[in-house]
Design a protein that fits this description.
The protein is mainly alpha-helical. The protein is about 50% helix and about 10% strand. A 3-stranded antiparallel beta sheet has the order 3-4-5. It has a 3-stranded antiparallel beta sheet with strand order 8-9-10, with no helix packed on it. Strands 1-2 form a two-stranded antiparallel sheet.
């Protein structure tokens, strides 16, 4: 058998081995005699192997609490929700159960909402960081945890998940939704409801796809109305100048709303907040893309169509940076995988041709089939959002609550 035939048969054998593992992707691999041959791996392998590595890198042994190692080993409700969501999609019930149990034991409050920040106290002990406001909530963590529980219920048919999700959902409405101009508005945390003047809003917490599911398990509250108002408010916020001369059309990280009349106030008037399109706001794009993927809500596509700055920056700069000012100016001179992962929400819906370029150059290259994981270590946030973005691009995040 000559060398060419032998290599061809070997390549076919590799294809047959992975054939049942999902759609295949290819990268170039240079063999010992310097000729480039295609190395084949499956989409499912990418998600599975990076998930396995994530568990080693970011889940505490035994307890499986999610540790943000780039921020003094804290744990957030957001982090717990990401682990639970990934566990559901990886069909990893053991990790899901341990992660949720730790969350219940250490973060869940008496009102069923989730304290947002846990870590080490000055005396060396560990617990909720009340001195930093960690006993308050972050609405995205509550929403994503409740959604993860409902997806888990659909996947594994364990009634406990549904029973655990329901009180979180009703507590969210009671503590994290306020009425402004007769419309429900999702605010950033549980303490905003007590403000008489302004409330803090984080647009990246809006999850219309989740509210459509919440409406099925909590029909006593107007979750569909919240989805409607979230879309209307997102359109208003993205278009507002927010103290500048113009808007790029992208949403801000934060915004303040006048409690009495709904007027928008630049976030900079509250210390520590900003109107940039950055590490918070980038999640809006992913959430809209997921809503369109699940429900084909035309409002998601209409909103995404306004985020043309992403295509423009890619075409002009050949890259995306993780922070843009509200008027579209670059506010960083580096790249972040999280930006490319979340941007898949835009590209998969609006410009899949360019999206394929972005995916191949900036996300696919993060994975190393030789290492069976990321080619280089990623931060907690980048790891999660690169993974979610790749999974969305692969159509590997189905709405499990819908019979297929």
């Amino acid at each position: 058998m000559n060398d060419k035939i032998r290599k061809a048969l070997l390549f076919i054998a590799v294809l047959l081995i992975i054939g049942g593992a999902g759609a295949a992707a290819m990268v170039n691999y240079v063999n010992s005699d310097r000729r480039t041959i295609p190395l084949v791996y499956s989409n499912s392998a990418v998600l599975r192997e990076t998930w396995i590595n994530y568990k080693v890198q970011y889940l505490e042994k035994e307890s499986l609490r999610t540790i943000d190692r780039q921020q003094n080993d804290i744990t957030t409700s957001e982090g717990q929700s990401y682990t639970m969501l990934r566990a559901v999609y990886m069909d990893d019930q053991e990790t899901f159960d341990k992660s949720w149990q730790w969350t219940k034991d250490n973060l869940q409050r008496d009102d069923y909402l989730i304290s947002w920040k846990f870590g080490q106290h000055p005396d060396g002990s560990y617990g909720v960081l009340t001195e930093q406001g960690g006993d308050n909530t972050a609405t995205d963590g509550d929403s994503d945890i409740a959604l993860a529980l409902l997806l888990a219920y659909s996947r594994w048919s364990k009634p406990d998940y549904l029973w655990d999700a329901r009180p979180i959902i009703t507590a969210m409405w009671a503590n994290e939704v306020v009425t402004i101009n007769g419309k429900p508005v999702l605010v950033a945390n549980n303490i905003e409801k007590n403000s008489k003047t302004q409330v803090v809003v984080n647009p990246s917490y809006f999850s219309p796809y989740a509210y459509k599911i919440f409406a099925q398990v909590d029909p006593t509250h107007d979750w569909i109305g919240l989805a409607d108002s979230s879309y209307a408010l997102l359109d208003q916020i993205s278009a507002a100048k927010l103290g500048g001369d113009s808007s790029s059309g992208l949403p801000p990280n934060w915004v303040l709303m006048n409690r009495s009349n709904g007027a928008l106030v630049p976030a900079e008037q509250r210390g520590g907040l900003d109107s940039n399109y950055g590490y918070d706001a980038m999640r809006v794009v992913f959430r809209l893309g997921l809503d369109y993927n699940w429900y084909k809500d035309p409002r998601a596509k209409t909103q995404l169509e306004k985020y043309t700055l992403l295509s423009q920056k890619w075409q002009s700069d050949g890259r995306l940076v993780p922070i843009y000012a509200h008027d579209g100016k670059n506010m960083a001179d580096y790249e972040a995988p999280a930006m490319y992962g979340t941007s898949m929400g835009y590209f998969t819906v609006i410009n899949p041709t360019v999206g394929k370029q972005v995916y191949q150059k900036k996300l696919q290259t993060l994975y190393s089939p030789d290492l069976q994981g990321w080619a280089r270590p990623l931060s907690y946030y980048d790891d999660n959002w690169a993974w979610f973005g790749m999974a969305l691009s692969m159509d590997a995040l189905p709405n499990l609550t819908v019979e297929r």
